[in-house]
Design goal:
InterPro entries (chains A, B): Aldehyde_DH_dom, G-glutamylP_reductase_CS, Glu-5-SA_DH, GPR_dom
Largest sheet of chain A: 7 strands, parallel
Organism (chains A, B): Methylogaea oryzae
CATH class of the largest domain in chain A: Alpha Beta
CATH topology of the largest domain in chain A: Aldehyde Dehydrogenase, Chain A, domain 1
Strand order of the largest sheet of chain A: 10-9-11-8-7-12-13
Family (chains A, B): Belongs to the gamma-glutamyl phosphate reductase family.
Oligomer: homodimer
Keywords (chains A, B): Amino-acid biosynthesis, Cytoplasm, NADP, Oxidoreductase, Proline biosynthesis
Catalytic activity (chains A, B): L-glutamate 5-semialdehyde + phosphate + NADP(+) = L-glutamyl 5-phosphate + NADPH + H(+)
Distance between the termini of chain A: 59 Å
Radius of gyration of chain A: 24 Å
Chain lengths: 423, 423
């Protein structure tokens, strides 16, 4: 395929046309057919695992030659266990209820018409991601089940793996009598393809980028199509003075230490001044055992021996590392003000036994997930029962928080009459 | 106020800061307080109608001096009846249920946490509109009831009217103990203010433009904030050969002739070839009586005497006038293909007594409203029971079709635990 920019534009437009045509067929596909395709894909991943690993070996070789570091090579590698996990993931999506076609709120209006809403696919979804090739099948399976077509643009370092996986996906679609073009993988590594994809108005209905903040911000800036964004996760836990100490310690340790490099890990701990002298020394001991570095406000530093002084920038930092900012606050209002000023609106949790404060926190904190007496680590599509997630949205419009099948659909109004006219 | 661009940027940012602060207070305001504010606003509009009309007279005078045409001057004028209608509109919003805070789908997960969704305001809504000053109070009332703050930028020709109305709105908010800054009217007519408003990231959560297609396209192109768009309404009625003739005539006449200049008027009529020879002559007679010009495909022209020949561009035109494009089709599939190719995805209706075809049309036509045996003119917030609408969205994401109070809100996840941690 030619890599010249003029051809890239034509190539992407042609992908767009094929995706729109396939999307129409997918939108009316019965659940049983979509599930048959998913089962065929799961079987194909295992049956074709040799071919997938051979393609993956090419990517790994090229990656080593290009000097990718060990962590990137690890993300790129498809072991038999990872191929099995991909197939298992597809099987899980078979088991999820099909959201498409559900009609809700159907009611008669005074005029005599009936009005309701029907859940329908978005149409064509563009997904832009970085190195992990498993995203190819995860994203394809979610789009397929929700009745959408998708155009996938993976990282150039995983191009062979992605194409091998796409071949399995497309064969599965055809086997079930669905159009192979419902899943299209961009077959050029030319970066111009991304620029074309995010401006394919009239063909692509939404763009979902998966990757670092830099990638997502660039895409959001240049896109002419709505983007479901996942920026950062600067999550807070506030321990109220009416907290149960055991719960506070359990939640604060789990939210920070369960995994460090994830968006739903706590990055700042806020502690009510009355409970700080009891709680912080105990917590500091736990964090010390785990190797977590503390950066505290002056009051924290006065209580916790050896605590580093936090700078203003610490309150805005998503560490994704064993580092935690700690601040002592006067009361719930100061905690919520701090969250309002510094949070990325991902996930915040209060630890308290006080009913009224819990109620206020839930209502007033403006984040995609708000919690009482639970670890921020629960902010996740599987934990929430969505079955799988294509990402976590930090946007407010359309989808907020973990995005599952329903986030890949929209609703249209359905009106039933009997020759009704407006007077 | 200075009109220099550098000051405009600072001025708009300051409006943004005030709106965010007011929005936080509005998001936690009780329904009774919001309703008290709305009642005070309705009373204020009537009580201050002299002052509003005096301000409006200034706009009318400036408009005449600037040579505005009669239609524009009419849209601009606030008669006592129109002020009464504005007050009545606000009273209707008092009667609507408050969507904020509703918790749905709350359920226990296997981990023991409870997960549900809470409906919450979007935050700050920027509304950009043209000449009608009544939009100022309609938009303010909807934003207020849904717990949002708003920044309103009306047309420069209605600046005095808008400011007088805003003064009433702000007084009503204060009377109810709510922040006046929940409704901010941009007080400069400098066009740079629009450019600033649509790029106020971090302050404004969504932009809703109300006006012509040109305005909306310009805003969508330059905005850095999500835009709820209402582009055009190229609506279709398809009369199937299994249609009831009386219903077909009633719906086709009403959809075209009830009002011409509205987005939910039919612009193209599609007729099954088997029913065309009976239906079209009768319909043509009705349209002739109403003064509607017909532009038909060759088959239509062969049936309807004196019908003009439609050009390819007619299928894509939103006439907003007593003109109708008419096309004879082979079957339902050709009708749906035509709609897929030419519709603006606003509203389409099928007239048929055939159960399976109605079912297919509802599922497969990808428009914000799909109807059976009903006039496209029903696509409207009041008719659908939303109570009022801030616009009709032709977008797919977030809000689709008429946008009422719920469209001005979003949902966040709520998690309740008892010291739960993730294992």
């Amino acid at each position: 395929m030619s890599q010249a920019p003029t051809d890239i534009a034509a190539y992407m437009r042609q992908l767009g046309e094929r995706a729109v045509a396939a999307g129409r067929a997918m939108s009316r596909a019965e659940t049983a057919k979509k599930n048959a395709a998913l089962n065929a894909i799961a079987a194909g991943l295992l049956g074709q695992s040799e071919a997938i690993r051979a393609a993956n070996a090419k990517d790994l070789e090229a990656g080593r030659a290009a000097g990718l570091d060990a962590a990137m090579l690890d993300r790129l590698e498809l072991t038999p266990a990872r191929i099995q996990a991909m197939a298992d993931g597809v099987k899980e999506i078979v088991a999820l209820p099909d959201p498409v076609g559900a009609i809700t709120d159907m009611a008669y209006r005074p005029s005599g018409i009936q009005v309701g809403k029907m859940r329908v696919p978005l149409g064509v979804i563009g997904i832009i991601y970085e190195s992990r090739p498993n995203v190819t099948v995860d994203a394809a399976a979610l789009c397929l089940k929700s009745g959408n077509a998708c155009i996938l643009r993976g990282g150039s370092e995983s191009i062979h793996s992605n194409q091998a996986i796409a071949a399995v996906v497309r064969a599965g679609l055809e086997q079930a009598g669905l159009p192979a073009d419902a899943v299209l993988v961009v077959e050029t590594t030319d970066r111009a393809a991304v620029g074309e994809l995010i401006t394919l108005e009239g063909y692509v209905d939404v763009i979902i980028p998966r990757g670092g903040k830099g990638l997502i911000e660039r895409i959001a800036k240049d896109a002419r199509i709505p983007v479901i964004k996942h920026l950062d996760g600067n999550c807070h836990v506030y321990v109220d003075d009416h907290a149960d100490m055991d719960k506070a310690i359990a939640v604060a340790v789990n939210a920070k230490c369960h995994r460090y490099g994830v968006c739903n890990a706590m990055e700042t701990l806020l502690v009510h001044r009355r409970i700080a002298p009891m709680l912080l020394p105990q917590l500091a001991e736990k964090y010390r055992e785990k190797g977590v570095e503390l950066r505290g406000c002056p009051q924290t530093c006065a209580i916790v021996e050896g605590c580093l002084a936090a700078g203003e920038e610490d309150w805005d930092t998503e560490y994704l590392a064993p580092i935690l900012a700690v601040k002592v606050v006067q009361d719930l209002d100061e905690a919520m003000d701090h969250i309002h000023r510094h949070s990325s609106r991902h996930t915040e949790s209060i630890v308290t036994e006080d009913y009224s404060r819990a109620r206020r926190f839930l209502r007033e904190v403006d984040s995609s997930s708000v919690m009482v007496n639970a670890s921020t680590r629960f902010a996740d599509g599987f934990e929430y029962g969505l079955g799988a997630e294509i990402g976590i949205s930090t946007d407010k419009l359309h989808a907020r928080g973990p995005v599952g099948l329903e986030g890949l659909t929209t609703q249209k109004f359905v009106v039933l009459g009997d020759g009704h006219i407006r007077s």
